[in-house]
Amino acid sequence: MKRFQNPILKKSAAVFGAVLLSGCAGMQLDNARMVEPKGSDFSTSLYKEYMALSELEFLEGDYGDSDAFALRAISAANNNPTTPEEISARNLPPANQGELATARRELVEALAATATEKASVNAAQAQAAFECWMQEQEENFQ
User: Fold this and answer.
1) Residue 117 belongs to domain spanning
2) Which of 36, 55, 122, 137 has its CA 20 to 30 A from that of 45?
3) Prediction pTM value
4) pLDDT tens track for 40-79
């Protein structure tokens, strides 16, 4: 097969493939915008927080993280809020992993206690802020 022997055709095929694949990224934000949040105050507050993060990441051109936050927003909107993201879910600098692990443990404990009922808005803000912190640490240039 000599179909892609020509270097210009090879580059064109590579660029076309990249454009085609990138077209799939960033689609979840629109899906999340169409969801009507229902459920607990914590779930609806978490939906709003994740939507804000998704919007910001989309504006930065970080469509992968925008999609991840949008999917978490959809889950929260359906009254099925996710737990704070696991440390292992991100490629974090080793120097930051201990601090983030401690913060996650404390957050999970607070959420499991009474934070989601007694301070639902603050609990949602804390969870979203933690995940934003992890996402920024993964980028490792802020």
Assistant:
1) 26-139
2) 137
3) 0.81
4) 999 999 999 999 999 999 999 999 999 999 999 999 999 9
